[in-house]
Specification:
The chain has helices spanning 2-25, 42-50, 54-65, 84-92, 104-110, 120-134, 136-139, 143-157, 166-182, 189-203, 216-243, 253-258, 271-302, 304-319, 329-333, 336-348, 381-384, 425-443; strands spanning 68-73, 76-81, 98-99, 354-359, 363-365, 368-370, 375-379. The chain is of the alpha+beta class. The chain has one domain (29-443): Cytochrome p450 (Orthogonal Bundle). It is globular, with a radius of gyration of 25 Å.
Length: 450
């Protein structure tokens, strides 16, 4: 009897281990192929994005594998997920499971201390510092400056022109607003040089990460280094001006971040974090607003009735102003229909194609295993253009957003959601509405639908 008990005690751990292994082996990876090591499906996806077929590429993948599949993107094994449940998992899920981690190729360009990379307390600390400048009550005081930049741009690049290239001009406008408002960098040779390097940096962010001379990625890395050098010099200048009391803590975003101190009088945000997050704000603020305004113009051109309603709303605001009087925060609040048009544009053409997270531990998701260390990839247009969520998704219909509560939860994510919602979404709203106001009341009126 004692021998039998001893034998059972010896075999029990072995049986438990075998049982655990059997259960572990049943945890299957999502369907799909990882493809060629390192490269995987990166080339195919990038080619699709450059030809505006990124959504089509992803839908073909969903049709083949379903709502979850594995692949390799930018050198790392990746799981692609989509749908409202996926959006909830990405933006509202447990932060101990997913980290906001970009591919190493993008991290090498933008730096490793931006909000794209930070998690937990570090993310909250830096985000709160950024929000102290970007929240609505802070941005109100800069309405005049934004209005001035938009007016100057319209007079220089749009008025009196028979033909214009909308997207490049919108990128110049949003860049100038960012430089003026966020960095205090006024017009001149320095801003032109900064723009040239910034554009070269952006061009290589979504490219094959091959760091060899003359590749787009290599040029982007070198441009990123030059941009950081220029920003570092700018930060040092701001430090000196703050010490000499010739600059104020809320003069621009840089002085705001430099002025943040904790109870021990220590700086809240480091110099490196300032540099990397300034670059992030530049990328986010530059592309999102310029793409949104450009496609709003395109969709207004194709929908005369919508254009007429926007024009009527904006003309009523213009009539309430004296000559040369800038727009105010209260004027923006009256642009309700115009912003619904912007929301519908964001649904159909989300400026951010998608993003990445990093699995911090093995995750069970929809019956599949997402292994620790793998990337998780999401794409915003997958729910935006889903006919089960938004009926007739290809139809441009601003009425969808008359009642925000009617929009299904976790389905409309142009600015993300939850604790990771874009901190610059209000800044984007201001730039968009001010630009559209002057475009439809001073530039396009009587021309667009002649």
């Amino acid at each position: 009897m004692n021998i039998l008990i001893t034998l059972l005690l010896f075999l029990l751990p072995v049986l438990l281990l075998l049982s655990w292994r059997r259960r572990g082996s049943s945890r299957k990876l999502p369907p799909g192929s990882l493809g060629i090591p390192i490269i995987g499906q990166s080339i195919g996806m990038l080619q699709a994005m450059r030809t505006n077929k990124g959504e089509e590429w992803l839908r073909e993948r969903v049709g083949k594998y379903g709502p979850i599949s594995k692949l390799t993107l930018f050198g790392k094994p990746t799981v692609f997920i989509h749908g409202p449940a996926a959006n909830k998992f990405i933006f509202y899920g447990d932060s101990s499971m997913l980290a906001n981690k970009q591919p190493s190729s993008i991290r090498a360009i933008l730096g490793d201390r931006s909000l794209f990379e930070l998690s937990g307390q570090d993310h909250r600390r830096v985000r709160e510092s950024l929000m102290s400048f970007l929240r609505p009550e802070s941005l109100k005081q800069y309405m005049g400056k934004i209005d001035e930049e938009v007016r100057k741009h319209m007079e220089l690049h749009w008025q009196g022109k028979e033909k214009v290239a909308a997207l490049p001009l919108m990128k110049i406008l949003t860049f100038n607003i960012i430089c003026s408002l966020l960095f205090g960098m006024e017009e001149g040779a320095e801003r032109e040089k900064f723009l040239e390097n910034f554009q070269e940096m952006v061009e290589g962010m979504w490219s094959i990460p091959v760091n060899l001379p003359f590749t787009r990625y290599n040029r982007s890395l070198r441009a990123s280094s030059r941009v950081q050098d220029m920003l570092e010099e700018l930060v040092q200048e701001k430090k000196v001006k703050l010490e000499q009391h010739t600059a104020t803590p809320h003069q621009d975003l840089i002085t705001c971040l430099l002025s943040k101190h904790n109870e021990e009088n220590e700086r809240v945000v480091t110099d490196k974090e300032i540099l990397h997050n300034i670059m992030l704000v530049m990328i986010a603020g530059h592309d999102t607003s310029s793409i949104l305004i450009t496609f709003m113009l395109r969709l207004l051109y194709k929908n005369p009735a919508v254009y007429k309603a926007v024009l009527q709303e904006q003309e009523e605001i213009a009539k309430s102003k004296t000559s040369g009087e800038p727009l105010t925060w209260e004027d923006l609040a009256r642009m309700k229909y115009t912003w619904r048009v912007a929301m519908e544009t964001l649904r159909m053409v989300p400026p951010v194609f998608g993003g990445f997270r990093l699995a911090l531990r093995d995750i069970d998701y929809c019956g599949y295993l997402i292994p620790k260390g793998w990337q998780v990839f999401w794409a915003s247009n997958m729910t935006h253009m889903d006919g089960n969520i938004f009926p007739a998704p290809s139809k441009f219909d601003p009425a969808r957003f008359e009642n925000q509560k009617s929009v299904p939860p976790y389905s409309f994510i142009p600015f993300g959601g939850g604790p990771r919602v874009c901190p610059g979404n209000e800044f984007a709203r201001i730039k968009t509405l001010v630009a559209i106001h002057y475009l439809v009341t001073q530039v396009l009126v009587g021309v667009m639908f002649r």
